[in-house]
Structure formats: C-alpha cells, structure tokens
Design brief:
heterodimer, A: alpha/beta, four-stranded mixed beta sheet, B: alpha+beta, about 15% strand, GROEL-like_equatorial_sf (chain B), GroEL-like_apical_dom_sf (chain B)
Chain lengths: ~600, ~650
C-alpha cells in the first residue's frame, strides 16, 4: 500500500538528471569566474557562501537520490574540508561517461553498476600508485627542502591562497590568506592546535570593510568587562579563571533557613555573608589577582566587593576562550585573528573558509590520516604531503597517464592532441545539455517524490566481490575516469575555451620535457587573475633546491604567486566520488512508503548534523 | 516523540540582478534613499499595515530599520548599511546611494561582473589612498584651537536631517550645544595613572517636549529627575546651603528591607525569635547612622530606600534620592568618584564615598530636576544636554541627531580632519580619479588583466556614481554644476536658471536631443571651430574643442542669443563661463568663492566631458568660512562599504531562499 515503483530502465538517466541539476547550481560558484550564492536561512538570516556543501544543503532537495549525493558531499567535505564543488562536477561527468559507455556497449552487457564497481575497485587498488608515479613527481613538497620536517611557508601560502580563492570573493581572498599564513607562522606548529582552538582564536566584527581584518597579538576574550580594568602601569597581570559563583545565594531554591537561637539571627547570617565576601577578596588580593575570568554570572555584591580591591571581572566568558586561556600559559606569544566584514553573512563566510582551510591543511599534512571511508584503501600513507599547481594540472596529468595506461606506452603526444580537440567539441555539446537544466527542472524534480525514501542502499562500502572483479582487462575503466577528469579544467576555463587548450597543451609539453630531462620541473597551468592564461614553465632559471625539485614560480599578472592544491586531497576526492557513484548506481528502485518513522528520524538527525 | 516535519525545498533564483522584479525593488529603494539625502531631502512617513505609530523621518537608521524588504539582496545591503551606521553613525544614505548607483552603472555598462569588480576594487584603492594623502584637495584639518570647524561639522550633521524641523538659528544653537557638550566630555590634563589613554566622559540627554528649541541647554554635571514629593522641604534647604564639596554615598543594592532580596528559598522563623524584617531595618538604620557620622550629605540609591531610613536621613539633613535607575549610576560614579555599594550588611568603606561640589534645583520645562555639580573644575567629563522641541516626533529625531553629532565629533579626536561637504568631495574625487584613471589606463588595465576599453568603461561608471551622490543633494529642480578648475559642486536654483537661459542648454545636453535639431536648422555650420558671442553683454564663450566635423552653433532664433551645441559628438562639451548671476556665490562647501576666482568655467554634472587636467587644490592659506564639512572617518568607511557591497551584490549568481 502506498508504494509506487519507478521503472527500472530509467535508472541511469534519472540519476544523471538529478546530479546534473545539482551540478548546474554548483557551477555558478565554481572556478576563478564563479560567484557568490546568497542564501537565507529559515530563521531569516541572510548568509553568503561559495562552499559547495553549504549550497547543496541550503537547497533542501527532496529527491532521495539527490539527498544521497548531498549527504556524500557533506561527509567528504567534513573529512577533508575541500573539494565539494569538484565532487559534484566529477560525479556528473563520470555518470555521463558511464551513460555513453553503456549505450555504446549495450550488447556486451556492461551494466552501469558493474562499471561503477570496476571504477571503484580501480580507484582503491591502483589509483594511488598511478598518482604517486605520474602526478606526484610534478608537484612540490610541502615540507621545507632545507629543514625536513618543517613546512615551507611560501608553498603553504600558495596552498592557502588557492583554497581561499575558491571559497571567498577573489578580491578578499588575498588578505585573508595572508592573515591565515601569518597566524600559522606565529603559532609555529602544525595547525592542529589552531584547528582545535579556532573558535577562540578568531573574532568576527561586522560593519567594517574586509580590508580592516588583522592579526592581534594576544588572546581576545569574547566578553565584556563587568567591572572595568583599572588602568595601571605595565605590570604583568595575574588572572584567575573561575567556573562557579564565588558568593552563593543565601537561600537557594528549595532550602530552608531556620532563624532563632544564638548566632542564628538574620543579622548574624548577613554579617557572615559579608565576612565571607571580604575573605574571598583578601585571598584574591593575596594571590595578586587583578583579573577574574568567570564562566558564570557573579552576584552584584561580589562584583562591587572585588571592584573595591581593584580586581576587574569578565563574566560569562565562553568555554572555548577559557580552555584556550588555560592551555596558553606555556605557549609563547599567542595571536588571534580579527575578521571584519560588512555584514554578519560576510564575516561568517570568511571565518568558515578559514576554518575549512585549516581543516584542509590538516588533511594535507597528515600522511597517516585515515578515514572510515578509506579504511580499506589505506594507501594515502605512501603519499608525501605533496602539492601541485592549480588550474587543472592534476587533472591533465592524471588524464594523460590514465590514457597511456589504456593505450599502452607507445602513445604519442600528437595523438593525444587530436584527442583533446575532439573532446572539446564534445564538451560544448554536453555543456549546452546541462545548461538547459535550469532550476525549473530542479523544481519538478523535487516534486516527483514527496516522501522520505523508505530504503536506499546508501553507504555500503565496496565489499569483497568488487575486489574479485577483473578490472584490469577492462581498459574502458581508466579511459572513462580519464575523460571524466577533464570536466574539471573545462569548467575552470569555461569562459574561454582557448585557455583550456593552451593549458592542456602546456601541461603535456611539460610532461614530455620531464621525461627527457633529469630535472623535475613543477608543472603549472596557471590561470592568471584576469582569465588570460599565463602559462609559463620555467625551464631556464636554475635555482635548484636541495631536493632536486626545481621551484618554478609563476607570477600571475596581478603580482600574486600562483596557487597550489594538495594531491592527497585530490586523491581522496576521487575515491569519495567513486564510492558515491557506486552507491548511487547500486540503487535500482526507489520505494515510497507512507509511514517510516524510524528512518525519517535518522534523516532528520543527519540533516541537523549537516547544518 | 518529537514531531517530524517535512522540510519544503528552497526557492532558487538564478542571476538575481537580471530579474526585472529585483531590479524594480532596487530602483525603488534607491529612489527612497536618494530623495531623503541632504538638507533639502524629503521626509518619509512610515506606517505599518495594522495602524499604530507613524514614523516621520529622513535619517537612514530609522528608515532602514523601519522598512524591511523580503528581497534577500536588499536585506543584505540594508544590513551592511546599518552595520556601518552602528560603527560610525553617519553617511548611511551616502553608502546606500553610492552602492545602488555603482550596481546600476555596472549593469548598464554591460561589463562582466568579475571584470567590474576588479576595476571597482582598484579604483577604491585609488580613492582611499587619495583621501589619505596629506595634500588631498578635499580634506581640511580640524583646528581644535577654535570651535569653528567643529561647529560646522556638527551643523552639517544636524542640518542634513530635515525631520528635526529646525530654523537656521535653531540649527546653529543646537550645533553649538553639541560642540559644547562634546568639549565638556573630553577630559582636561592627564588622566592619573595612564598618560597614554584617555577616557571620554558621558553626555546624558534629557528631552523635554513642548518647549522652544532655543531653550535647549547644556549643563556641566548631572541633572537627576526627582519627583516632586521627593524634594522634601529639608532637601530644598540643603540645596541652598553654601558651597561644597559635599560627601556622597551611592548604593546599587535595594535598601527597601525586603526579604525577597535573599533568594528563592524559604525562611523558617522560630516562635519567639524576633521578626527578621525588624532586624533588617535595624541594619539599615545602622547604615544610616554611619552615613550621618561620616558626614554624608547626599545619599543616593539606584532602587528603593525604606521610608524609615529616608525619614531618619532627612531628619539629619541628608539629601536623599532614590530610584535613580541603572542608566545614571555610571555617570554618577564617573563624575563623583564614588564606588557603588552593593551590600548593606557591612559598614560603608570610607573609599566608597564620592564628592559633589553642590546641588541645586533647576526648573527645566515643566520638570524640577536636581542638578549635581561636578566636584572639581575643570569638570571631569560628565555633562547633561537638555533638548527641547515642540512635539514628540521631532524631539526623538533631534535626540538621535544630537547623538550622531556627538559620535561624529568624537571621531575627529582619532583623525583630526574633515572632508568638504556639499557634494564637493565627491565631484573633486571623481575628477581626480577620472584624470588619474585615464592617464594611467593602460598600466592599470594590464595589471588587472582587463582590456583598456573595459577599464575606461568601469572608470566612467565609478566616476558617474560618485557624481550621482553629489547630484542626489539636489531636490528642488536645481541644476548641479561642476567647475572645471577645482571640480567643486555648485547648484543653481531653478528659477534663476530659467531666467538666465543658460541652464536649458545644460539640460539639453544632459538629455541630448532637442537643440540638435535647432542647431542643424540654423545652418551656420562652420568647419572647424565656430565661436560666437551674441548679443548678451557678458558674452558667453562657446567652447567647442576638438570636434573635427564642425560645430553647429545657433544664434539667431533664440531670444537669449546663445545656444551652443556640438551635435554630432556624443561627448559634447557644454561649458559656460560664469559671471552670469545664475551661479551661486560659493560652491557647495563654501571653499571656492566665485568673486575670488574669476574665470571659472562650469559644466553640468554627469555629462561626459573629455578628460581634463587634474583638479586644482584650493590653497588653504586664507580659508573662507566653510559651510559644510563631513566626517572623514565615517565617509572613508562609507565609501569602502559602498564599493565592497556593490561588488558583493554583483558577484551574487544565485539566491537560495529557505521557505520553512
């Protein structure tokens, strides 16, 4: 009763349609030309974002498959803090490849699900090796070549700057990334500490332009003085943190005070009360305390009493501040970040971006980092914290390597060139295809299914049988992945296809040079700030660094150095997309049940976590 | 079990700026803000659909708080203006007009948003560095040795709020009071203990309805509202007594003797034990006794004082004031140096006493108030401003305006500079940017990675937006002109303009079509330059410049004799050499006087004259009396906020509205 079966044959098309709609939304804020998304909460709050996960959750899609995708994106981005927009692009493009392939080879029985499983198996077993061999040598290490174990600050800044460019307005990314770099350098630690204490380390101020953001020395405590600080000479100030009221109320609710008899009159009680306050003050004075940080509200009498002893009090100091304050004493000179913005929405966007940037750094740094989702793979530990230039370099390199695997080592460069060109044409086709999916489609889509899904086989990870699948004799798999990867740079250069070709050609030529030379130049296909491509490879200047990796600095025309992105984040992204793809395609039917309390509860919870 | 509610999907809007509905709303908002701007701005009455209070205002804070839009883009802009106002209290309308104007110009120019954003950002940097230059032509130093510039600054704020309904004399009076109050709150000499930090005092505002504005006054010290019955005969006697200083005790704890002060629990009293309330009263009386022995002469409490204690104190000649309210406690502490006592069970510590020099009863309007005089001269930074006005609405507006003025004056302590008002800063800056941008277009375009024509288009929009702000000052059909030497703003009254016949010329060029026909009709087309001075004695010099095709200059048919037009060239120059009566004696801010600088030439605002040399800086050796000054700090921030906001709005590609 109350169930409706959807025809199975529509499965792949409908999945693709759903994902394409999400892709169409995401595309507005993707890449160097992407813009902001303004969204209002149900509370009426107006917020800004370029964060893929936030955009997707704000949509509140109803289609069960779309929700599944949103959930996958959310989970991926909560692990790495990065790549949520690329996730959707890649997913849509992989689905298109699968669709193409199944149409072409219907008689061979290459089902979409089987292909997805083969892709995942390939990703889990071989992708890591491919990346390590083919892509990583073209990148540069994040650790300082001169002092191993230390982070190279310059590369770090480029990494941060590139990340923030994808998340806040490009005109503001510069200043925020600069401040974040300074913050990291002041703390001179691997970001974990800042990551952990970030809520207490930043202050958002609205009403000023973003340019007024700055780094303040010291810790900012987010509370007002209840009794102001008496101005003294520049002596060190002793502070005491308290977590409970120092003058308890005389009569707590539910207690009875008995009056009568000796020493039990109300006056003596009052006198005792006064004496007790005085003794607290004397103790404070004895300890030399002149600043009291209290996490709770103190009584008025107490405030007045300590005020007389020259102690100033901050009440209702938040937990994060107090925790940071208590661990700070053995850590040099702290610095905290003041983020300004015109509105609350803007400051929140910047704060959110910095938080995710720290998260992303954490992922990049941590070679031992394992997540539940990638437990079986566990191949990330072979990868050094390695970064590579932005602008599609990673995708181009991987694309090419995968194609070479497909066609064997005799693959010629000229061949790949023609290959690329033909694909560009195809791209324009698919591009217009998705463009027609405007938000009206989204609307219709969201109304197809008005009930929560009764069952979706969502999070089953690759199980044993995928492993046994013989994917090696299926060159289609790496070919499909290779083609799909190109959708990312295509979107980056979408406003000027010529730049796309230039960047691709450039990367290829660098790759060829790399094969011949002993040097390992860092390849960059960099998009300059203006959108005009400043593809340059430094082959002449020979400031070889210790590790033998020649640092190539490409200066974009605006004078800022080009950005880099983390290879391990990219790898994890591809894996997450492949997993999501597999789970999407293993669903064959959506059943609509009328009553499903337990499940809708679970969904509700997930959604709340997602917010 | 919690209720499971289904969430509806969000409503999405793709590229909101291209939707006519959004654009209409933005245009409406822009019109509202523009029409409120300046001293001649129009008032707005805001009332909601269920009746109730009608708000009459033209100030941005009240207006934007009262008018809320469901459109997310407008919400964003409104919120950013209000945030700016909460920090700087001034230039809210300016921010809004500039922001909307920038958005409008970018949309009209057809530039890609990402390109326009880059150009705007770069031009903003040019503007801020220009304003921060030492020799910036639209900046004047605030001289603290004379009140002149401070009063001008205050009057500019006050006169730009027409909802206060003040005459010129009243404006001057209120401005003087605002400066007086401000000066009283700046402490003199070194603050003990911290030579590098100054704590500003407080101005307490008392508003009285139904009196003349000119009755408003500023008093050093505090005026405390005391109900009639509290001013006991003995108190009046006390107030008459000779000069102080008097000792003052201040309590924040309630001295009513109620047991409820103790907490939420219950009391159990054994039979035969004395009544706790009596015991508490005894405590209170002990306190009173101590006050009397310590020669306290003024006894004040934030809350209620037990009548018995009041009576006791009065009998001993102590002036008793209760129910002060929390707002007055801090000013009293600051003025008298007393420490507020929050416990009555222990004796009053001697250091908690404060001092007043004296107190007297002042009749302010219909009210009798107790005036506490500050203990020392110079007064330590607390004063009271009594504001009077005829009715409640105007009074509220006046009160808000005086607070703005105080804030603006305080901002000068940080940056002792002010900007020229009356639209002159905007026109001057536009001319500077236009000149600098045009000469350095190639370089700037290259560094931004845009084409030179894109850059010039963006530059043009930016300058027009700045001039649009100056133009927004004009409401009564005047024509806004800008002079070609100093690029200051001049507004020509409507009536005279028609009379003299030169302004239709300007308007014609503004709209661009009508005289063209006439010009062709006249037939006196000359190759190259044709200059004609007709029958008018002064002679209008016609300046046609570099137009290659030739100029159609028409003289015969128009009675006034002059109709100048360069028809075929879109960037026609309409320059008038003004010694006609139509141009006022000074520019908008009053810095440039026509009589002192002969040979000035004018052109209507927002016409596209070809690039010209950088505007001259008026020498400030003998500055004439400036009429209007604007806060430097507030306007600088407003400029940044407006440009950033415009950039932000242009950058928004998608709107997602949660409808749950």
């Amino acid at each position: 009763m109350g169930m409706r079966l959807q025809p199975r044959c529509l499965q792949l098309d409908s999945v693709l349609q759903t994902v394409s709609v999400l892709e169409a939304v995401i595309r507005r804020s993707f890449g160097p030309d992407g813009g902001q998304v303004l969204f209002t909460r149900d509370t009426g709050q107006t917020l800004l974002t370029r964060h893929g996960t936030r955009i997707l959750t704000a949509l509140r899609v109803e289609h069960p498959l779309a929700r599944m995708v949103v959930e996958c994106v959310r989970r991926h981005s909560s692990v790495t803090g990065d790549g949520s927009k690329t996730f959707v692009l890649l997913l849509a493009s992989l689905l298109r490849e699968i669709q193409k392939h199944t149409r072409k080879a219907r008689q061979e029985g290459a089902g979409a699900k089987r292909l997805a499983e083969a892709l995942l198996a390939f990703g889990l077993d071989e992708l890591s090796d491919v990346i390590t061999v083919a892509v990583a040598p073209h990148g540069s290490s994040l650790s300082d070549p001169h002092t191993p174990g230390q982070t190279d600050t310059h590369t770090l800044c480029r990494l941060l700057s590139a990340f923030l460019h994808t998340r806040i307005s490009p005109t503001h990314a510069e200043i925020i990334s600069q401040l974040t770099c300074e913050l990291l350098s002041h703390w001179s630690c691997h970001g974990d500490f800042i990551n952990e204490h970030f809520p207490a380390l930043h202050t958002a101020v609205s009403g000023f332009p973003i340019g007024c953001s700055r780094l303040l020395e010291g810790q900012v405590i987010h509370a007002d003085f209840s009794t102001p600080l008496p101005l003294r000479d520049h002596r060190p100030i002793r502070a005491l943190a308290v977590t409970e009221p120092l003058e308890p109320s005389l009569l707590i609710d539910g207690t009875v005070l008995e009056l009568g008899g000796a020493n039990r009159e109300i006056e003596s009680v009052c006198v005792r009360l006064g004496r007790r306050l005085d003794s607290v003050c004397v103790i404070l004075q004895h300890l030399g305390v002149s600043l009291l940080l209290s996490s709770v509200r103190q009584s008025e009498a107490f405030l007045a009493a300590v005020g007389r002893y020259g102690v100033c009090v901050l009440e209702c100091v938040c937990e994060d501040d107090l925790t940071l304050f208590s661990v700070l004493k053995d850590r040099g000179r702290p610095h905290s970040l003041v983020v300004c913005g015109l509105t609350e929405g803007q400051t929140e966007q910047s704060v959110c971006a910095v938080r995710d940037a720290l998260h992303m750094l954490h992922t990049t740094w941590g070679p031992k980092h394992r997540t539940r989702a990638t437990e079986r793979t566990a191949r990330t530990d072979v990868m050094e914290p390695c970064v590579i230039s932005v602008g599609g370099t990673f995708e181009f390199l991987l694309h090419h390597t995968l194609l070479q695997r497909k066609h064997g080592q005799t693959h010629s460069v000229t061949h790949s060139h023609t290959h690329t060109l033909s694909h560009t044409d195809m791209h324009t086709l698919s591009h217009t295809d998705t463009h027609t999916l405007s938000h009206t489609d989204m609307h219709t889509l969201s109304h197809i299914d008005t009930h929560t899904p009764s069952h979706t086989d969502t999070h089953t990870q690759s199980n044993a049988d995928t492993h046994t699948l013989s994917h090696l004799d299926n060159p289609a798999v790496s070919g499909m992945l290779a083609e799909a990867l190109l959708s990312v740079p295509r979107q980056i250069y979408s406003h000027n296809p010529r730049h796309y070709l230039e960047a691709h050609a450039h990367t290829l030529s660098c790759m060829r040079n790399h094969g011949n030379s002993t040097d390992l130049p860092e390849i960059s296909a960099v998009l300059a700030a203006d959108g005009s491509n400043m593809v340059q490879a430094d082959t002449g200047s020979g400031s070889g660094s210790g590790s033998g990796v020649k640092e190539v600095t490409v200066w974009s025309s605006s004078g800022s150095s080009s950005g880099v992105e983390s290879v391990s984040c990219k790898y994890q992204l591809i894996l997450a997309v492949l997993q999501c793809l597999r789970s999407l395609l293993s669903v064959d039917t959506v059943l609509h049940a009328n009553t499903s309390h337990t499940l809708s509860h679970a969904c509700q919870r997930e959604e709340e976590e997602g917010d | 079990m919690s209720r499971v509610t289904k969430k509806a999907s969000s409503v999405c809007t793709d590229s909101p700026l291209s939707m006519s509905e959004v654009c209409q709303k933005m245009t409406l908002m822009r019109q509202i803000l523009t029409s409120c701007f300046g001293p001649n701005g129009r008032l707005k009455q805001v009332h909601n659909n269920v009746g109730g209070h009608v708000l009459t205002t033209s100030t941005s804070t009240s207006l934007l708080q009262a008018v809320s839009s469901s459109e997310p883009l407008l919400k964003l802009i409104t919120a950013s203006i209000l945030n700016h106002l909460s920090r700087f209290s001034d230039c809210g309308l300016y921010t809004g007009i500039l922001c909307f104007s920038l958005i409008d110009h970018v949309q009209k120019s057809g530039l890609r948003p990402s390109v326009a954003i880059k150009i705007n950002k770069q031009l903003l940097e040019v503007c801020t560095s220009f304003l921060n230059q030492e020799d910036c032509g639209c900046k004047v130093n605030v001289d603290f040795n004379s009140c002149q510039s401070l009063v001008t600054l205050a009057r500019s704020v006050i006169s730009s709020k027409p909802a206060c309904v003040l005459t010129e004399g009243e404006q001057q009076h209120i401005s003087t009071l605002a400066v007086h109050a401000f000066l009283l709150t700046v402490p003199c000499g070194d603050t003990p203990g911290s030579p590098d930090r100054v704590r500003l005092g407080k101005t307490v505002t008392v508003s009285i309805e139904g009196q003349f504005v000119l009755d408003s006054a500023v008093f050093p010290g505090l005026l405390v509202n005391v109900p009639d019955m509290q001013l006991h005969p003995t108190d009046s006697e006390r107030t008459r007594r000779g000069p102080g200083p008097f000792r003052l005790a201040l309590f924040t704890v309630s001295l009513s003797g109620d047991l409820s002060e103790f907490g939420e629990g219950s009391l159990e009293v054994h039979s035969g034990a004395p009544d706790p309330e009596d015991l508490i009263l005894d405590e209170l009386l002990k306190l009173g006794e101590q006050a009397v022995t310590d020669q306290v002469e003024v006894f004040m409490c934030q809350r209620v004082i037990h009548p018995v204690l009041q009576h006791y104190l009065r009998r001993h000649g102590v002036l008793v004031v209760e129910r002060l309210g929390i707002a007055l406690i801090e000013p009293i502490v600051q003025m008298t140096g007393a420490q507020a006592v929050a416990l009555y069970q222990t004796p009053i510590p001697p250091e908690a006493y404060g001092q007043v020099k004296g107190c007297c009863v002042r009749t302010v309007g219909s009210r009798e108030m107790l005036h506490l005089l500050p203990p020392r001269e110079p007064a330590p930074a607390v004063c009271t401003m009594v504001l009077c006005h005829r009715n409640d609405t105007m009074l509220n507006e006046l009160k808000a305006v005086c607070q703005r003025a105080e804030h603006v004056l305080r901002l000068t302590l940080r940056d002792p500079v002010a900007l020229l008002g009356g639209g002159c800063t905007e026109t001057h800056m536009a001319a500077y940017i236009s000149n600098k941008g045009t000469t350095e277009a190639a370089k700037a375009a290259l560094s931004l990675g845009v084409s030179q024509s894109q850059y010039l288009l963006g530059l043009n929009g930016f300058c027009s937006s700045l001039e649009a702000v100056a133009l927004a000052l004009v409401h009564d059909g005047e024509t806004g002109l800008v002079d070609l030497s100093y690029a200051h703003h001049w507004s020509v009254p409507q009536g005279e303009a028609i009379h003299s016949g030169t302004v239709p010329q300007g308007e014609a060029i503004h709209s661009g079509t009508v005289p063209q026909g006439e010009a062709i009709h006249s037939g006196t087309v000359a190759q190259g330059e044709a200059i004609h001075s007709g029958t008018v004695a002064q002679g209008e010099a016609i300046h046609s410049g570099t137009v290659p095709q030739g100029e159609a200059i028409h003289s015969g048919t128009v009675a006034q004799g002059e109709a100048i037009h360069s028809g075929t060239v879109p960037q026609g120059e309409a320059v008038q050499r003004g010694d006609g009566d139509e141009v006022p004696a000074t520019c908008g801010c009053g810095l440039v006087e026509r009589s002192a600088r002969p040979g000035l030439e004018w052109t209507p605002l927002n016409t596209r004259y070809p690039s010209r040399s950088a505007p001259l800086v008026v020498g400030k050796d003998t500055p004439p009396q400036l009429r209007v000054l604007d806060s430097f700090t507030a306007k600088l921030n407003a400029l940044q906020v407006a440009v950033e906001m415009a950039n932000l709005v242009l950058d928004i590609r998608y709107v997602i509205q949660d409808v749950n």
